[in-house]
Design brief:
Elements: E1 3-6, E2 9-12, E3 16-17, H1 29-41, E4 46-48, H2 62-73, E5 82-87, E6 89-91, E7 97-99, H3 103-117, E8 122-127, H4 136-148, E9 152-158, H5 162-172, E10 176-182, H6 191-200, E11 203-207, H7 222-227, H8 229-238, H9 242-253, H10 266-274, H11 282-290
Helix pairs in contact: 1-2, 1-10, 3-4, 4-5, 8-9
The structure holds NADP nicotinamide-adenine-dinucleotide phosphate.
Amino acid sequence: MRHRRLGELTVSAVGLGAMPLSIEGRPDEARALATVHAALDAGVTLLDTADSYTLPGAAPGHNELLVARALAAYGGDTSDVLVATKGGRGRTPDGGWTVDAGPHRLKAAAEASLKRLGVEAIGLYQLHKPDPAIPFEDSVGALRDLLDEGKIRLAGLSNTDPDQIRRAHAILGDRLVSVQNRYSPQVRDSEPELRLCAELGLAFLPWSPLGGITRSSLDGPARLETGFPAFHEVARERGVTPQQICLAWHLAQSPTVIPIPGASRPETITASAAAADLSLTEEELSFLNTGK
Ligand SMILES: NC(=O)c1ccc[n+]([C@@H]2O[C@H](COP(=O)([O-])OP(=O)(O)OC[C@H]3O[C@@H](n4cnc5c(N)ncnc54)[C@H](OP(=O)(O)O)[C@@H]3O)[C@@H](O)[C@H]2O)c1
């Protein structure tokens, strides 16, 4: 397993996105635990969760409790595993996602996450999404207070633009270590954020790196199947899967990129973790990017 920097820490170059273990279509508890354990067996040391990863209308915390149970039940050493959680969002009964990132709400959410994870301090706490009803500096100020109080060790952002990243960096300095935005071969509009993270030395965690959860994902994410023949061609030549080529493509974007593919089965995270050791040539990258 290759590793990458995240602030002063070193984590696996591919993390586990734990969201599919708790939202609609989630597996039963045994398969969910087996999926986290397969990630750990494969050397994954970054687990991405959030308080809002739960069923529509359900109480927050399903995913955090699951991750905590999986770590407690794992036979091996988990001391180097970084659990990255998020606060500032919730679920509605109709399947929607709310945003509520006022400073009081964020601090209360972090306290609740801390208890659910059963830790003294949260390893990495990410603002899930800026709240348009709250001055951005107020939400970031809550992260600063949580850092100062020792409730969280490191801070991250999610779904932010370059201006917000610079403003948060000015407030948090090197205690801001990561930005998590949507990014994949299909959806590249967070390219400026990815480049800014490389410039500032922040980890960039692409979410939905394989194009997101699809019902046909048992055979691989459908969106990769259709629009990206180059990924299939390179995969055939290398004897790996298009999803593994996709993760290798992510890792080639910048040394600060750490993809967090989601999984609801042990097999998929095992395959994703193996992609951390794939290096693409310049020719392959050019072919993937241009089809030529
Ligand atoms: N910050 C945010 O706002 C935000 C938003 C969305 C997601 N996220 C985070 O990002 C993570 C990843 O995003 P995502 O789960 O939406 O989408 P994704 O990683 O693009 O795709 C996940 C789907 O791909 C399949 N898959 C994973 N690895 C595979 C492999 N090696 N080969 C074939 N199929 C594979 C999985 O199948 P199986 O289910 O069959 O295992 C799963 O259904 C989430 O889990 C969550 O932690 C964050």
